[in-house]
Fold each of these.
Amino acid sequence: MTGATFYCSCVNWPREDVSAAGGLCDMINHARMISRRTFLANVEPDSYRELETDLGYARNSRSGLSMARDWAVSYHKSKLHGETVYYIRHSAIEYVFAK
């Protein structure tokens, strides 16, 4: 396994790490937006697909709304306690992938 796997969403983030130095808030504040292609190149496909399914997205746009076609989803790269992480912002919730 070389890519990042799903770690946690901001909704379930450990309370003591939300405002801690290098924690969730710092990760969000220092993030940069990346392309979907870059995001997918850096995360484990199975981990990503599981989240995509859990969020109710169709595998392809002929079967319904796919994550790739959802204008409200954005992809980001940042640091969490000094380690590079990638995350999806979906409906104002961050879904973080880490190694």
Amino acid sequence: MFDPFTYLKNKKCLLIGNAVLDKEPNYSDYEVIIRMNLGIITKPCDVWIDNLVNQAHSFLLDKLGYYPEIKNIIRLNAEKNGKRMERMPSVYKPYAWLWNKEEYQSMCNQLKYQRPTTGLVSIYWLTNFVECDLTVTGYDFFKTPNRYTMETHAVSGTYVYPSHDINKDKYWIMKWADQGLFKLI
């Protein structure tokens, strides 16, 4: 099974969100490229944070016709008392490192936010549990659509699902960036 702590330790890492980018980063400046959710579609990708729901895994399979081959998988979403951890295609389960549900709930309690986005959870986890030099890009607090789906939510009419409080995302991520816990480009 993938050991993210050893793999990422002391490495220069780039976490790429799914916002529309004006310009692709210079990937050669980083030792590890980390993509989230549907970002697995784009290369390079050394580590995949897969917090996708069942429908999104189906979207991925339908769009590509196959599941991308990757063995460095992290699953951080432990909602519903950890039940969300197991909801992934069986092809990925042997490779996925699963976060501790108690630590996930502790994060939610600390942030006073029960449905954080994958971006916020990823940044929190990487800055609190992993010794790496982190840079984040492609995360614009849903000012632009997800570049893989270009979806507008049917109920809210926005690019973000109504279950997420994007103001909390922005508050915490900007606070951590201002504290120098990671670089934001």
